Amino acid sequence: MKFSIKVAAVLSCAVCAAVLCSSYTSFAETTVSTETEQPKARVFGDDVKVTYRGETFVLPINKDGATGDPSIKQDDYNFDGFSDIFIKTASVNREYIGDYWLWDDNAGEFVFSQYMAIENGRGKEMTIDKKEQTLHLTRNSKTVYYGWEGDAFVPKRAEVESKGQIMTYSFDDNYNTVLEKREKYDGIRHETVKELDTGDYLRVTDDAVEYMKGKSVIQSIPVSDIFPDTEPLKYSSLPAFKDELYGIKLVRMDLDFDGTRDLCVCLNPREQGGKPKYAYYLMNTKSGKLERMEKLSEDGRMFTPDPFEKVLCHVETKFNEDHSTTANYYKWEGDKAVLYKREEGDSEMTKVGRYEESMRVYRIDENGNEKLSRT
User: Bridge partners of 314?
Assistant: First the structure.
């Protein structure tokens, strides 16, 4: 009997007996390869037992983070004409996690694929495309296609659907995204309508947010400079999913109403104990680069642009007995956003069981002095 084990170990006689005597819990879902003979795999206790070419192989089941009984899938995951094994052990956020074991015809055994263990040392269940020879994974609105370069399993391209458009990205040598194509997409008919200009875009790298045009880096903003008072934690991220690396979200919006798209960077609430933090950058039309808005970024709160009144507004609601709400309004004076109005509202329960609302409006002068203008 031949064993293929991720961490080499010799099973004791007692463990062997337990494996052989235990009953299996599931069979492989599919058996696909160009060979006439197919591996027969099933779960026995803490292992998967595979019978193939007259021999038996025992593959250990990694139960770290297991969310249910393990199951098996078989397919030719590296497109070499031989059926391989994927052992599923957990489901997290609708993604199946497990381990890939690929048949090595030279060694005559199934070998654990470290290259396909693309996140935290574990593999992800992917959809296989035999014609294109890729495997793809969809997370939120982003689909990444992986393929083989020799023994390396690497991202080949990514497609992102957003706001009626589909963006197609390639990857550079550091697996950073490069926008190749932007298309208008009909979500009802599920087809592209026309190709658009790629324009400018943003990407997250290992240590920066970069402002891009085509393949050119126009500006690189270190993550440490975006939130200087907070050190964002670096999360483990899938190759080609670096936008999740620091848990930050990039939002383009016209903050100063000049017709150009500026930038809001939101830091994941996990970094702030559940409270998001925001930083803001204006597009300088002369230099073509983003410039930090120090005052609003130091404030760190979420501001929403109102294109009709041409003001920035921050609303804060406190769910106390009075259900109080405070709205701060900023207007532009030159290149600075200046606080000029604050509204405070309360809702108080009356004796007859109805809410009675009150509103106070304060005006703020150029020296920062407040004056009650109306109630």
Answer: 328
